[in-house]
Amino acid sequence: MAEVIYMPKLSDTMTEGVVAEWTKKIGDKVSSGEVLAEIETDKATMEFESFYDGVLLHIGVEKGNAAPVNSVLAIIGKEGEDISALISSAPAAETKVEPAPKQEEKTVTPEPAPSETKVAAVTTATAPVAAPAPVAQNNGRVFASPLAKKLAEEKGIDIHAVAGTGEGGRIVKRDVDHFVPYTPASGASAMIPSVPAGTESFVDEPVSQMRKTIARRLAESKFTAPHFYLTLDIDMDAAIEARKSINSNGVKISFNDFVVKAVALSLKKHPAINSSWYGDYIRRNHHVHVGVAVAVDEGLLVPVIRFADSKGLSTISEEVREYAKKAKDKKLQPSDWEGNTFTISNLGMFGIEEFTAIVNPPDSCILAVGGIKEVPVVKNGQVVPGNVMKVTLSCDHRVVDGASGASFLQTFKNFMENPVNMLL
């Protein structure tokens, strides 16, 4: 009997998934445990394995398309089996289709996958027009005037890549005349293409699942959790010397590794900071799982260093490097990013001296770490060169009070300025 495979919930925050790639096509044999597709979630692109043996009879979500969790992903059964009843009774994935204008239509090659970008340009010499609407399309059709289609063909322009400014998103002559072909660099954000002087240009990029989730979760945090911020200067002279001494023995430790360790030990002394807000109750975590924000092309991922208070600097360093590589390769698993009790966001390597971060739920605090800067400082009554790092603690006031946050920062400061205490 044929089996229906539904879009899986691959992370705790996932509401829909995008099929990044099908490894099988209709008619192929599939074995249980064999990779069936690659699914893009809000955190990573993950391989999805089949639970059944049989033949792939139906694909419910085409490559590049999104579908809600629990919608039909595929159907596997015996070759030649009738699955029409299953298809008609199963809930279909919701799709959004732009309303078709009444102009003449012509079927052309289907539109490229959503991962591609669309570029259009309008010279300032033309009369002002409304902001270009997305290319109107329906079942592989693109809507353009006959003249626009002819011009695009003559110029060798893919009509699907042109954004329409006509009624209902229809592509007209001016859109083709001022089109600037552009393909973004692989794995990187689109760079501004070279366009003639006096020309307005834009790029429409589809929003990834990760970016949608970042927007939703951080907006909820910012506008529901009453934030307050505490900033402190850290004397980094001792940490610089300690790092030089450790690394001279062949171990590569970063300043961020010192931060992770100091945070973890400070959280053990200040359990109020290592807490979470759950509406009707506050959870005081006895374990310390430190999330470390890692920048990737689509946004941020926060892999978790578990039981960080009990790990040495070299172990922390190794885990952070491994997670950073997995994050950039989109190979993090749910177990890698779930369960944080505190988060660190470090922009010091980008030359940022000071910033504030938004609390990462369900944590009650996040530490924003700036770069180390050489400045004049007063020591023993004299002005001398010193190395200072600014940190800012963002706190959810529903859980953490000002005095609690300040006490935590003082303990953190003591560990960073006396790094030998972290080794005791």
Count every beta strand, where a strand is a DSSP E run of 2 or more residues. 23
- Report the radius of gyration as a whole number of Å: 27 Å
Please, how many helices? 9
Strand order in the largest sheet: 14-23-22-21-17-20
Mean pLDDT: 81
CATH class identity of the largest domain: Alpha Beta
- CATH architecture classification of the largest domain: 2-Layer Sandwich
Structural notes for this entry:
This protein is an alpha+beta fold and 424 residues long. The protein folds into three domains: 3-89, Beta Barrel (OB fold (Dihydrolipoamide Acetyltransferase, E2P)), CATH 2.40.50.100; 106-204, Dihydrolipoamide Transferase (Irregular), CATH 4.10.320; 210-423, Chloramphenicol acetyltransferase-like domain (Chloramphenicol Acetyltransferase, 2-Layer Sandwich). Helix content is 23%, strand content 28%. The protein is built from nine helices and 23 strands. The strands form seven sheets. The chain has a six-stranded mixed sheet with strand order 14-23-22-21-17-20. A four-stranded antiparallel sheet has the order 1-8-6-3, with no helix packed on it. A four-stranded antiparallel sheet has the order 5-4-2-7, with no helix packed on it. Strand 15 and strand 16 form a beta hairpin. The radius of gyration is 27 Å and the shape is globular. It starts with a strand and ends in a 7-residue tail after the last helix. Mean pLDDT is 81; it is low at 93-140 and 182-190.
